[in-house]
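Work Package 3 (structural annotation) set out to generate three-dimensional models for the target panel prioritized at the project kickoff. During this period the team completed the workflow that converts sequence records into discrete structure tokens, so that structures can be stored uniformly alongside our sequence database. As a representative example, we reproduce one entry of 432 residues exactly as it appears in the project archive.
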Amino acid sequence: MNFWQPKLETMKRSDLQDLQMRRLKDTVKRAYERVPFYHQKMKDLGLTPGDLAGIKDARPLPETRKGDLRDNYPFDLFAVPRDEVVRVHASSGTTGKPTVVGYTARDIDAWSDMVARDLVMVGCSREDVFQNAVNYGFFTGGLGIHYGIERMGAMAVPSGTGDTKRQIEIMIDFGVTALHCTPSYALYLAETVTEMGVAGDLSLKIGCFGAEPWSDGARMELEEMLNIKAYDSYGLSEMFGPGVAFECQEQDGLHIWEDHFLVEILDPEGEPCAPGERGELVLTSLTKEAMPLIRYHTGDVTYMMEDDCPCGRSSVRLHRFLGRADDMLVVRGINVFPSQIEDVLLKIPEIGDYFQVVVDRKRHALDDISIKVEVRDIAFTGELADLARLQKKVEGELKSVMKIRSKVELVEKGSLPRTQGKSKKIVDLREI
């Protein structure tokens, strides 16, 4: 199948809005009839699916937030019977419970087609050998990209994560031409390639990087060190996963597929932002069967770009993402919330009320997360071994919840800064 789809990708705005409206009506009707959460929400607002006459009528529809997924854990937002769900994925939430999403067979097909469209857009073809160097577990980046690679006909190399030198050997031995991983891992790979002196042995042409913020400076370094064109990818598990938006070969903004998503950018008061005005991305899924979401607040801050793209695609382009509207951090592709950390620390008697998370990325290294925590007087027994045990205990408890290793630094009570407002719990030193 050809995944350059000009009928959809270059559709006139009026035709696209007609398609969106048909799909939105179907989505809202199914959610109202099959998902108690949405039925009650719409009832509370005095709305029924019949009130939806045009795209502008979407604004009064109920909003959905990550907390709603957590409150309906694990399957209460599903709009199909359990036996129609062929897969689930999950991402970290603000507590120990993940946010769970489900897929029907047609959802998997739609997602695979969307990712295939993305990969063709950046120049991939059936001749490519595509290495997918991300986690293949609950994280959507593994299987999501993998199915897209296979759908567009390239050779998928599911190398997963870890063992960097082996990853590089695979690149050389298999003649890998395209790579998908997090940008921080790509920088580490590039540095290791340079140290090994094998840059000239690589066949790489294309790099697709996402799951965490990265800068134009990082793009320039990756392109120079790996001799590739580096493309930005955006996705979230609540809306399928990777592939929701992707750069084209112009490398100037991410095309978001409006045949699958209704796109809003809202200011903190919930009002629409004009093109060029930054706000929170809010999405409504138009094609998801298992778990349709209406006006979902992604927490990601961006803005719509005004000018037409020279590539000819007519979908809205989003500027490279500028940060978060909430307090979530993305570290090595993992969602980390200060509230997660706080929940863990409050359960340890020796730990005080104040902590500070410091995230840094040394040159070409993976993200490093360290947590300064104040300890109560009872922790100071005079034995260094007791403090060492406490430090190890805190690190272990945090890793079990965050699913990522952090370095804990124990500090005396009163060491961390106090402010009149909210304490500064996050110090992000990465250049993004």
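Residues 112 and 148 are 4 Å apart (CA to CA).
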